[in-house]
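Q: I have 386 residues here and want to know how they pack in 3D. Can you give me a structure?
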Amino acid sequence: MAASFVFLQQILCYILRYRKNVVLLQKNEYMKNLRIIVLSVWCIAYGTLCTAATPFPKTAADSVILDAIQKDSIIPGAVLCVVENGEISYLQAYGNRAVVPAQEAMTTNTIFDLASVSKPTGAGSAALLLCAEGKLNVNDYVAQYIPQYHSDVQIRHLMTHYSGLPAYMTATRLDSIYLARGVEMARAEFTIDTIARCKRPSAVGEKYRYSCLNFISLQKVVEAIVGEDINTYMRYKLYRPLGNSTMGWLPADSLYDRIAPTECIDDICILGDVHDPLARIMMTGVSGNAGVFATAEEVAYWAIWFMNLPEETRINGCNAGLWTDSVSTSTGSFTQSCRHTGYTGTSVTILPEEKRAVILLTNRVHPKDEHNLAPLRRALNNMLTP
């Protein structure tokens, strides 16, 4: 944009010099050429205004979020964080983070259970980092790292949900089988072993089926390569270098007073434990499919890290498992959108080419799991498109 205004300034200077030399030209020729130059200036100015990214409409965003809280009662509260030009431009808290057993006001430093947003921010990012370092390739077969695994599944099948695996496994049923068999292995190891040998509803590469089992498998691949649990690895490898001191699995007890509770069952609210049953019961809180806790600001710093990666790095790492598609901009062009949502009421949408992102964190399942956030998410995503 700055270059366009410099060019405009040069043209206007030319007009002034041209006018001084008008005596050398016929009057009608002068007017004709002047009209052409002025028209050109107007076209460039108009094009500059049209191609400039429209600022995120913060007041409109405030309005739709407050309606969701006060008018529609679909969420108790929320935190919105907006990234523009690769920097945080807006951070706002709304409503309450808890309404049961007592009301607590939402704050911008509230820590949320990210649910499935853990997939790209956790195991997906870990895999991307390892691919960038040459320690992993998305064309590697999973069985290279988990020997008993389905022999035809590659890393990219896990990250893009084309492995053929079932969408989920019921945690209570899996746990009852685990207890009945009396196996001599931890619940997490039993879970991955069951996934590795389970019957698949479709062949690999045949059908897209979003599956939590894909990212639990990816977690185990990462841990096999780095030689430690994914929580330890990601905290020192990515989260701490980004300045994200609270981001990670298994939040410390000292952080509980900042955590947004999720569902209340028999008058007891889940607080500090992951809401997802498979992650909570079978994976004991550290799971590739869910379990990362973070503030909206921390997710924004992660999004900035992601959008600043070279495009080749993002592609070679399957965009960390984010859903990708093209969206139309106001100028009629198309730009890439990378996004993910989480069951508890979380979402992140990134436009890497535009250096823009919107992060909405809510605990919509508190106190009861009853409401749909799709319209609110859609409205905010539409506001993000330049």
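Q: Anything worth noting?
A: The chain is about 40% helix and 15% strand. Confidence is low (pLDDT under 50) at residues 1-27, 36-51.
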